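Section 3.1: Structural characterization of target chains.
Under the original work plan, the team committed to producing a structural model for every single-chain target entering the pipeline before any wet-lab resources were allocated. The record below documents one such target. The sequence was received from the expression subgroup and is listed exactly as submitted; it comprises 295 residues.
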Amino acid sequence: MRIKTKPPKVSPALFIFAALLSIIFLLSNATALAIGLSQSINKTEMKFEDSLIFEITLEWEGSQFAYLFEGPLNPYFDRLKVHKFSSSINSTGTGDSEKTIKKFSYTLLPTSSGTAKIDPIVIRFMSRPDSIRGQLLTEPVIINVADPVIVEESENFPLWFLAMGGFLLIGGVAAAFILIKGGGKKEEVFTPVQIALQELVKVKEESGTDFKKFQAGVYRLLTKFSKENYRIETAGKSETEIETAFADTNLDETRKRQIKDWIVRAQKDKFRPAVASVGATVRLENEIRAFLESI
């Protein structure tokens, strides 16, 4: 006698849950593919006394604020050290045709001869405003570093070497006299952009997760920056007056609107209870930092 068994029934809720997981996975992959990644290096064979430049370029369609990059890059260099580092972000076009390019540039020096390596670098990001996370990975790089050149020292000092030593000694004494007379070394001078970036870090540390306190600091920072960098007085001005004042600057329309909106909103939030979502302080700090670094 045969016993017929019925196939198990699949709950409709389980079907819906599986479909949602598939959609989220596809959206995540689509987001990751929306950012183009490329890298370049100017040499793979080098002298020990030389330097090389390693660059990472990210490119996407949209504004500078379409993605939030999570934390600084943390590259690992074997037999190499960072001599200089810089980053930049630039946008071209407007609206649907806007395109953004972000670059990271490392100038590297050898620490020993042999086979030097640059390990793959993980770049984590989050799309905005949908908060979909993704990551990109660079390719590993191998560089051959030659042995250092040995310079033989002469037992007899040439006359030109002694003469140069005398000039250096005289120059050193004269420089010391000028410094003493002038009251010591001069203080380092910072640009308005550098000052604003330093103050942004201080405002974030002092306000913590208090969004209203952070907005008060942002208002002081941006009004001071507008006055020092563009000679525009925005403190106590209306939204229309601020918009008119920025019309004559060399900023593009997107940046004019951004700094105007930040100042107006911060001015209002100082005098009313600010209701902000979780992460609003971090998000606004990153947007202002990207704006300042792009100038």
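The longest helix spans residues 159-182.
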